[in-house]
């Protein structure tokens, strides 16, 4: 994974919650004081966030954790880092290095993506009654971009920034729903521990496509995979996913009658 569970769940809370809400405030405080709160107890964290201990406990459950103990374990095991891609002296040289890196990643995706699977995915987009598009952090940018392109062609698709809301939608969707998941590392479902579709016949599950740069990616929930070769690095992400989202829109549009208006 490029990102651990902590930034995925915390940043999705901040992006989807109303500014100043209890959950947003707790998530923001923890992200801004990571080193300080790793060994902090629930009472002390609640005091620093100006909330009650019950609010901290609810926050943990809302972001998909069992309790505060699991939150502390997550904080203590998180070690995120940013990857620079040039050590050149001048800004112009660093810009050129990054440009080459991004262009190479897009070319790699274009040359290794299956055209047959791309066409099959677009047929599903034309066939299914309901469509949802999801991704985490940068990958959600690809989902939003595709949502906008499909809307321009008269095809409504649902998306949501919150990972919790994404999982809830997937778990409640039925066989009339097509779900596209953009996941650069193919790890979308690894952040969620609970079983989806518990007690439901597999024939009633939604059809899920995963669009990913991780070859041979698999999940019990995923019916089809549209994958491409990638270096699995931060420089290529999310540009490859954005490119593939654009390709999906372009191919889908070929089957749409042009407007005469």
Task: Describe the protein's topology.
Layout: H1 5-16, H2 22-32, H3 34-37, H4 42-49, H5 53-62, H6 68-77, H7 91-112, H8 115-127, E1 130-135, H9 138-152, H10 163-172, E2 177-182, E3 207-212, E4 224-227, H11 239-253
Parallel strand pairs: 1-2, 2-3, 3-4
Briefly say what this structure is.
50% of the residues lie in helices and 8% in strands. It has 11 helices and 4 strands; from the N terminus they run ααααααααβααβββα. It is globular.
Question: What does this entry look like structurally?
Answer:
- The chain has helices at about 5-15, 20-30, 35, 40-50, 55-60, 70-75, 90-110, 115-125, 140-150, 165-170, 240-255, and strands at about 130-135, 175-180, 205-210, 225.
- The chain is α/β, with parallel strands linked by helices and about 260 residues long.
- The chain has two domains: about 5-75, Arc Repressor Mutant, subunit A (Orthogonal Bundle); about 90-255, Glucose-6-phosphate isomerase like protein, domain 1 (Rossmann fold, 3-Layer(aba) Sandwich).
- Strands 1-2-3-4 form a four-stranded parallel β-sheet, with helices on both faces.
- Helix 1 packs across helix 2 (about 20-30) and helix 4 packs across helix 5 (about 55-60).
- It is globular.
- It starts with a helix and ends in an 8-residue tail after the last helix.
- The model has no long low-confidence stretch (mean pLDDT about 85).
């Amino acid at each position: 994974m490029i990102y651990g569970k902590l930034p995925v769940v915390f940043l999705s809370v901040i992006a989807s919650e109303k500014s100043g809400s209890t959950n947003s405030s707790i998530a923001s405080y923890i992200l801004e004081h990571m080193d300080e709160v790793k060994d902090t107890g629930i009472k002390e964290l609640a005091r620093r966030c100006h909330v009650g201990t019950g609010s901290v406990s609810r926050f943990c459950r809302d972001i998909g954790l069992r309790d505060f103990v699991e939150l502390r374990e997550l904080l203590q095991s998180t070690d995120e880092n940013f990857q620079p891609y040039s050590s050149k002296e001048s800004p112009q040289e660093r810009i050129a290095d990054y440009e080459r890196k991004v262009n190479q990643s897009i070319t790699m995706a274009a040359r290794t993506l299956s055209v047959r699977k791309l066409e099959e995915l677009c047929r599903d987009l034309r066939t299914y009654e309901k469509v949802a598009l999801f991704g985490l952090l940068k990958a959600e940018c690809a989902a939003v971009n595709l949502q906008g392109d499909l809307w321009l062609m008269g095809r409504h698709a649902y998306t949501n920034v919150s990972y919790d809301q994404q999982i809830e939608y997937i778990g409640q969707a039925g066989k009339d729903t097509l779900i596209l998941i953009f996941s650069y590392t193919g790890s979308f479902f690894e952040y969620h521990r609970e079983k989806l579709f518990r007690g439901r016949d597999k024939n009633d599950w939604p059809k899920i496509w995963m669009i990913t740069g991780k070859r041979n990616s698999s999940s019990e929930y995923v019916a089809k995979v549209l994958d491409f070769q990638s270096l699995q690095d931060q420089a290529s992400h999310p540009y490859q996913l954005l490119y593939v989202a654009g390709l999906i829109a372009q191919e889908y549009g070929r089957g749409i009658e042009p407007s005469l208006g």
